[in-house]
Specification:
single chain, 145 residues, alpha+beta, Glutaredoxin, 5 strands, 19% strand, disordered C terminus
């Protein structure tokens, strides 16, 4: 009887954790505070985008990383003001530690000046990525007037 109770508790805990992960994976979290971290083009080894830069931390064995790469590359290809950088987490441990990357894929969305504006842990959804670009679109439209 005790074994059955332990099994039911374990199943309930696993189900709750799975539902939590399903609800939170791929969601954007805005970074706030006076000391928001920054990345420069020297840190990344390439130029930043004019409005936003997607920095993806990935690993070679990560299947969601490949799907995230495809999504972000297609969004960046459609919009010339965006840049996309894919970093191998194993070879950039300095940045992994600096930004507290605990799992892949993790995507940092940088503003034009390299300040981390948003953080996405897990595979993002296309609608979520496009929604992050709307404030930048408004600013670019106002600047071009």
């Amino acid at each position: 009887m005790t074994g059955l109770i332990i099994l039911l508790v374990a199943l309930a805990a696993a189900t709750a954790f799975g539902l939590y992960r399903r609800a939170t994976d791929g969601r954007s979290r805005s970074t706030t505070g006076a000391r928001r971290p920054r990345l420069s083009s020297d840190d990344l080894g390439t130029d930043l985008g004019a409005s936003r830069t997607f920095v993806q931390f990935s690993s070679s064995v990560c299947t969601p990383c490949r799907r995230t790469r495809t999504l972000l590359e297609s969004v960046a290809a459609e919009r010339p003001e965006l840049a996309y950088v894919d970093l191998d987490a194993e070879s950039r441990l300095d940045l992994v530690e600096r930004f507290g990357v605990l799992r892949t894929p993790t995507v940092l969305v940088l503003d034009a000046d390299g300040t981390v504006a948003h953080r996405i842990v897990g595979q993002p959804r296309r609608a979520e990525v496009l929604a992050l670009l709307e404030p930048a679109d408004t600013l670019l439209a106002a600047a071009s007037r």
